[in-house]
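@channel sequence for tomorrow's demo:
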Amino acid sequence: MQELLTSHRSIRQFKDTPIPDELLNEMLYAGLRGSSSGNMQTWSVIVTRDPKMKEKLFVAHREQEMVRQA
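structure tokens (generated this afternoon):
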């Protein structure tokens, strides 16, 4: 799991299988512990399962379809 989360990849398509909260928290924790340039940690994470909120995020992110799927 650690190796998977600490290697760089860009994912653009997602399955519709829900992720259990415990696994999601474990993945977020591992991601926050990863290295960043100058230890600046210049990222943010938004977790939502609400379709209405996903639609708002879709519009805010220039209508990238991956936002609806994520």
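heads up for whoever presents: Helices lie at 2-6, 21-32, 51-60, 65-69.
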